[in-house]
Amino acid sequence: MASNSKREQILTTVRTKVLALGSILQVERKPLQGLADLEAYAQTQLPLAIILGGMPVPTEKFSDRTRKLDKVISELPVTVLVYALDNVTPDSTISTIADDIWVTLYNDITLGYRWVMGLDIKPDANVAVWDPYVAFRMLVNVTYLHDKGGI
């Protein structure tokens, strides 16, 4: 059941959409533990995106006539971390990749599911630059409808 939960479907779809970008060459769902993990990737695998999902936070709950929980609207925080290799024009690289992610995810705010009500993207203002790498993150908040049977 958990492998097909709505949470997992959302995270898988965000991963698929980011991987389809021409500006991202590799997408993972496991966080890097440090610079050594990043250096383990070949230069031909960068830019790399890491998709990390938080836990859904219920914002509204609806009950049926029997006062049993029936439907829940939740917000799922999804972090898209991007690591790129560029020591010549890192700011331009960040602009290009961030723009691609923004346009792709906002192209269909339902992510193709009728139960996804929308999404909101907030780029993190902090950018990391350590020669020859650059890194940034975009916070994606997905609002969706589910029931008491799962997240």
Features of this protein?
single chain; 151 residues; alpha+beta; STM4215-like; 7-stranded mixed sheet; 25% helix
Tell me about this structure:
With 151 residues, the chain is α+β, with helices and mostly antiparallel strands. It has a single domain, classed as 2-Layer Sandwich (STM4215-like). Helices cover 25% and strands 39% of the residues. The chain has three helices and seven strands; from the N terminus they run H-E-H-E-E-E-H-E-E-E. Strands 1, 2, 3, 4, 5, 6 and 7 form a seven-stranded mixed sheet that branches. A hairpin with a 2-residue loop joins strand 6 and strand 7. The model has no long low-confidence stretch (mean pLDDT 92).
* Named CATH architecture: 2-Layer Sandwich
Percentage beta strand = 35-45%
Q: Kindly provide the radius of gyration, computed on alpha-carbon positions and rounded to a whole number of angstroms.
A: 17 Å
Strand-and-helix sequence, N→C? Answer: HEHEEEHEEE
Helix-residue proportion: 10-25%
From the spread of the alpha carbons, the general shape counts as: elongated
Strand and helix layout:
Blueprint lengths: L5 H14 L6 E3 L6 H5 L8 E6 L3 E7 L5 E17 L4 H18 L8 E8 L4 E3 L2 E15 L4
Parallel strand pairs: 1-2
Antiparallel strand pairs: 2-4, 3-4, 4-7, 5-7, 6-7
Care to give the gist of this entry?
The chain is an alpha+beta fold. The chain has helices at residues 6-19, 35-39, 90-107, and strands spanning 26-28, 48-53, 57-63, 69-85, 116-123, 128-130, 133-147. Helix 2 links the parallel strand 1 (26-28) and strand 2 (48-53).
